[in-house]
Amino acid sequence: MNDARLIDYYAILNLPPSADLLGVENAYARLSNELVYRTEVDETAADALKLVNEAYAVLSIPKLRVEYDSEFFKTEIERQRRLAEAVARRSRLMANLIAGSLAMLVLAEAAGLAYLAREHLGFLSGWL
Hints:
2 domains, mainly alpha, Helix Hairpins, 128 residues
């Protein structure tokens, strides 16, 4: 599986990564039939057929496909993980900003009420 990450088997079979097993089998059947026919007249078709067979051998076996995908899409998976972490950090920051803002509003309201109480209710003037 070391070389698998260097070769895009999905591109070889002309498939999206979301293709199911039936899609892999259909693409393989179509391409291999065409390449077998072309090997008689085109010497590069034999090399292409080897790649198609290799791609099918990996993508048609679920365990091998999972291993291949984890290596082939490692960079994308890491990018998505970092993106999710950044979103979580921004969410925490916003939650903290909102909580801090609400705390400031409560303190300002309490200070205003204390001021009014001191001015209009003389009995608190000694405490404040």
